[in-house]
Structure formats: C-alpha cells, structure tokens
Amino acid sequence: MGSGNWRSELRSESFAREAESEPETGTLSIVVLGASGDLAKKKTFPALFNLYRQGFLQPSEVHIFGYARTKISDDELRNRIRGYLIHGKGDSPEHPEAVSKFLQLIKYISGSYDTEEGFRLLDKEIYAHEVSRNSLEGTSRRLFYLALPPSVYPSVCKMIGTCCMNKSDLGGWTRIVVEKPFGKDLETAEKLSTQIGQLFEEQQIYRIDHYLGKELVQNLLVLRFANRFFLPLWNRDNIDNVQIVFREDFGTDGRGGYFDQYGIIRDIIQNHLLQVLCLVAMEKPISLKPEHIRDEKVKVLQSVLEIKDEEVVLGQYEGYTDDETVPDNSNTPTFATVVLRIHNERWEGVPFILKAGKALNSRKAEIRVQFKDVPGDIFKCKKQGRNEFVIRLQPLEAMYMKLTVKQPGLEMHTVQSELDLSYMQRYQGVVIPEACERLILDTIRGDQQHFVRRDELKAAWEIFTPLLHRIDRGELKPSPYKPGSRGPVEADELLEKAGYVQTHGYIWIPPTL
Ligand SMILES: NC(=O)C1=CN([C@@H]2O[C@H](COP(=O)(O)OP(=O)(O)OC[C@H]3O[C@@H](n4cnc5c(N)ncnc54)[C@H](OP(=O)(O)O)[C@@H]3O)[C@@H](O)[C@H]2O)C=CC1
Ligand SMILES: O=C1O[C@H](COP(=O)(O)O)[C@@H](O)[C@H](O)[C@H]1O
C-alpha cells in the first residue's frame, strides 16, 4: 500500500540535514524522568516497547533508564508497566517473550529532582552502560524524556545540564523532551522557555504535543498540498466555517488535582487543537524542512485576532467537584467552545470553532470543514445540508466528504451521501503507529518537524492568555452540563451563530469489515 512511501519521502526530505552528516554510532540511553507516573506507564514505555518490537531500538545499542523519587526496585517498575505492554499491540506469538526482553533493558534509579546526588548516580549508570558497549566517549546519545509536571522542569533541566551531559562532542548528543502544558500563560511559559533556553539549545529541546504524531494530523500537509482538488477550494471564497473538535466520554478520571489547575483550554485547546488549526490554515511551506513548516505555523498563530467573550462558551460537568482534589467552588471549565478568527487574505471572515470537552456523549476528535451553499441552487439542497469534508482523527481514522447526489430511482430527488476513505477498510493489515511512538522516533532521529518551536508556543499563549486570565479571575463562568451529554446547549447556539449548518437526518456510519 502507498501509505509507507509518502511518509518515507516526507522523512527523507526533513532528514536531509542528517543524511549529510556522519551516521550515528554511539550507544543510545533513553531516560524517562517521572517513570513512576501515569504518562510514563500509559504512553512513554508502551511507545518505547513498540519501537523496540519493530527493531528501531536495538538491544545492542539502547538502554532505558527510569528515574523518579518513588523508592522502587527495577523489578517493581517493570511490573508496573508490564500490563500496559501486554495489553497494547500484543498481536504476535512472540509477544510475551518480547515484553520480557524489553523489560530487561530498563533500569530504575530513585532520586530527587532538585539535588545532584540522584543525577550523579544516573550519569554513572548511563556512563557504565556506554562503556559496556564500547561507545567512544562523546559519540553517545542521551535522550531525556520529562514525563513530569512542568513545575519541576527547570530544576530537572539544571540537574541534567550539570550532571548528565555528554562530556565531549564527537557527534553524540543530549536531547530533552518536554511535555505539555508548557507553562500556564504567556508569562510563565516565557519564563520556563528562558530557564530551559539557558541550559539547552533550541535544537536540543523537543516540546512534544502528541496530537502532532497522530496519523491523520500528519496527513494534513499531504492532503492539502499534494491534491489539486483542495488547492483552489481551501479559502474564504468556498469554506464557510471550520470546526476542530475533541470529545471524551470520561471525566478527569483521577487526574482532578492536575486538571483543576489547568482546565480544558490549557489541557487540550491551547495545544492540541491549536496545532491542528495551524496545519489546516497555514500557507504552503517552501519545503518540508522543519523550520519552513514551523515558520508558516507561527504566521497563522500571529494572525489570530483577540478572542471575544461572546464567542466563548464554557461548561463544567455535574459531579466534577466530587473529586476530593477539586475545590467545591472550582471555576475550571471541563468544556469550552471558542471561535478563533484569522486575519489574513485566505481566512478573513471564516470562523474556526475549537471545541473540547470531557464527560461528553462520545470519544472523538475530528476536523469538520463546511463549505458554503451552492449559489443559484436549483435542487434546494440547502435543506438537506452543505458539503462537508470531515477528517476523523480518532477513533477509526477516516476522511469523508459529505456531498449531495441524486437519490437512486426514477425521481429526480437529491440525497446526502459521502465519499469515504475509512482507513480500517482501505488499509487493511496496516498498523497505524501510536502518536508517541512516532514522536520518540523523531527525537532519536533529530527531526523537529512535529515539535513545537519556542516562538510557536509564545504565539499560542498570546492567543489564549487574556481569555484564560478572565476565567481565572472568575469573570467568565462555566455552565453546568450533564455527564454523557453534548455539553452546554449554549455551545450549539454559538455554533449556529458562527454559521455552522447542521445536516439533519444524516449520520456517517463508519464502515466495518
Ligand atoms: N497522563 C497523561 O495522559 C498525559 C500527561 N501529560 C503530561 O505529562 C506530564 C506527566 O504527566 P503524568 O504522568 O500524568 O503526571 P503524574 O502526576 O503521574 O506525575 C509523574 C511523576 O512525577 C512525579 N511528581 C508528581 N507530582 C510531582 C510534584 N508536584 N513534584 C515533583 N514530582 C512530582 C511523581 O513521581 P515521583 O513522586 O516518584 O517522583 C509522578 O509519578 C505532565 O506534564 C502532563 O501534563 C501529557 C499528555 C497526557
Ligand atoms: O493531553 C491530553 O490528551 C488526552 C487525550 O489524548 P488522546 O490521544 O487520547 O486523544 C487527554 O485525556 C488528557 O486530558 C490530556 O492531558
């Protein structure tokens, strides 16, 4: 199937810099900081396991270190994560054996995040591994994945910088991966960027947003710029509105303490949905080089106008404050619809409606591009619905185009139907990699295309900070909504006001095999 080819072409171009340099020969040490935590067990270690299974991490050159304060043994850490590997993509007969071999590559070190002792020990262990593999000093590769709350990033980066860097430069490297949310607003994010920037070069910092690793998010550039179809249509003359939607059918699920500090805008909209918006709205980059792509993303972000309060709906699901880590009077939104307006030649007047919510009626993430009505419509199609191009990011990756066709039969009646590219059906047997898996591989390969650059992050915070401050001050209040519902009714009203026309009586049903 063609899917592998385009990706390798994309990669080969963005790796042009690497191809020019010497192949990397040193050992690879991957350090997961915060190894005792939720992200590490659910996403980071399973992603590493999948890379190992596919041969991207060779036991002869890689070693994995877990680091956190919790005092546990190597085996205790291995037992914590084992279940998340077995219940992952465990489809091959050698799977249990592969799990055991992979787990043996992991060593755990306990230490604090702000004193040198633990990091000196970590460095010693990494070094011992490098020596055991005859890695020439200075050629080794050290990747630090910060699966930690952002509050400890500065001290951890300082410790890495002081204790754990490669001692000389013979083609090896030290890179850090930092998770979102990166800061809480413009000021704190900039402060954090400055602190980390004093310790690491921008090329060493990988600000991860796992939505950028999703298959259909990565497909956006190809879709938009490799298809003649879309080139002339993708603008304000043809598109009426764009929705980028994230829904989850569960609540904060034991993460209330974290979530209440951030809320849905910081957790999902300011990063995941805004990154998707950039790829939907940006101009064609000069090339696929990471800097060219990120330059275009920054331009879009900088063209977003100030958000108006009347174009925001906030919600909080009933029962959210039952979590004992959430204060009873919390004003934190668990749902938000926000209309963004891009002030440029292509998008003037087209609302980009970003919507995200927890504890809703379904789990889904999609982009919905709604086209304008057909001028001089002789079929009265308007009553049936508009053309829509929907990109379903998850679950069941698909792209479908809602269009009007003649209803089969003797009469000249029209009906809504769709052109459907459902991945499960079209790409049978193709395993779609997990987002984190792909992004970790990118960090090892030194490809920053799918990571957020410092100026991008700044521009993203500039858009949302004034609104977030108004919410933090209690000037905007979330409306209550029932768990398992569509969210507050005001959100649908805002959608309609922004111009979205719902197609009644039509539902796209994902095909099954
Ligand atoms: N969980 C998820 O699904 C996702 C998480 N993220 C981001 O990843 C990062 C880690 O998330 P997650 O694993 O859920 O977080 P956790 O709360 O599980 O924290 C990870 C580890 O960090 C240590 N830790 C926790 N709180 C503190 C603290 N206040 N000070 C110092 N150390 C602390 C703990 O290890 P110990 O006490 O052993 O040192 C803990 O096991 C966060 O930035 C989060 O926003 C991003 C996307 C999804
Ligand atoms: O970053 C986050 O993402 C998850 C949703 O990720 P997905 O890949 O399953 O869509 C969300 O649950 C979490 O609150 C947020 O921090």
Automatic annotation (TrEMBL):
DNA-binding recorded as keyword: no
Positions of region (Disordered): 1-20
GO biological processes: glucose metabolic process; pentose-phosphate shunt, oxidative branch
Cellular component, GO, one term: cytosol
Pathway: Carbohydrate degradation; pentose phosphate pathway; D-ribulose 5-phosphate from D-glucose 6-phosphate (oxidative stage): step 1/3
Pfam families xref list: G6PD_C, G6PD_N
GO molecular function: glucose-6-phosphate dehydrogenase activity; NADP binding
Superkingdom of this protein's organism: Eukaryota
Biased composition (Basic and acidic residues): 8-20
Broad enzyme group: oxidoreductase
Glucose-6-phosphate dehydrogenase C-terminal domain ranges (all copies): 221-500
Record has Oxidoreductase as a keyword: yes
Listed EC numbers: 1.1.1.49
Subcellular location per the Swiss-Prot or TrEMBL entry: Cytoplasm
Catalysed transformations (reactions): D-glucose 6-phosphate + NADP(+) = 6-phospho-D-glucono-1,5-lactone + NADPH + H(+)
Matching SUPFAM superfamilies: Glyceraldehyde-3-phosphate dehydrogenase-like, C-terminal domain, NAD(P)-binding Rossmann-fold domains
InterPro entries from the UniProt entry: G6P_DH, G6P_DH_AS, G6P_DH_C, G6P_DH_NAD-bd, NAD(P)-bd_dom_sf
Annotated family: Belongs to the glucose-6-phosphate dehydrogenase family.
NCBIfam families linked to this entry: zwf
Function (record text): Catalyzes the rate-limiting step of the oxidative pentose-phosphate pathway, which represents a route for the dissimilation of carbohydrates besides glycolysis.
Name assigned to this protein: Glucose-6-phosphate 1-dehydrogenase
Annotated source species: Paeonia suffruticosa
Taxonomy of the source species: Eukaryota, Viridiplantae, Streptophyta, Embryophyta, Tracheophyta
